[in-house]
Amino acid sequence: MLTVKPLFAKVYMSCILVVALSITSCAQQQKKEESKEIQQQSKTTAMKKVSMPVSGMVCSACQSNVKNTMKSLDGISEVEVSLEKKYAYFLYDPAKIKPEQIQKAVNDKGYTAGKIQKISQ
User: Fold this and answer.
1) pLDDT value at position 118?
2) Residue 99: which residues within 8 A CB-CB, separation 6 or more?
3) DSSP string covering 19-32, please?
């Protein structure tokens, strides 16, 4: 009878320990998810959705060249380039890159970038 109580106590303590570790782990995971969500929100609020006319594109290779040039710049994401409309649509972070820098990068590739225009969201 004496050996049952210590065994029961060990099992009981082990169960409490497992439950405590599970709760702690879940709480830490929830904090990480909340932190990621806040970072995502701050990124989207800082980004501006804009369009920019690009002349000089005559084929799909030109279209790809403009798109890849813009994607390679720090502060630009979600680039779409329309050969038919002769426009580039993209998100950019004004804190990281200036419109003049974007235009210069496109112009340096042999195309003519126009003035960036904000798209209403």
Assistant:
1) 86
2) 92, 115, 116
3) HHHHHHHHHHHHHH
Residue type, position 24, single letter:
T
For the chain, the straight-line distance linking the first and the last C-alpha, in angstroms and rounded, comes to 74
Do 14 and 61 lie in a common domain?
A: no
For CA atoms 99, 100, 105, 110, the dihedral sign is positive
pLDDT digits (tens, 9 = 90+) for 57-104: 999 999 999 999 999 999 998 999 999 999 999 999 999 999 999 999
Are 39 and 64 found together in one domain? no
Residues 26, 57: one domain?
A: no
* Nearest in space to 46 (alpha carbons), one of 95, 89, 79: 95
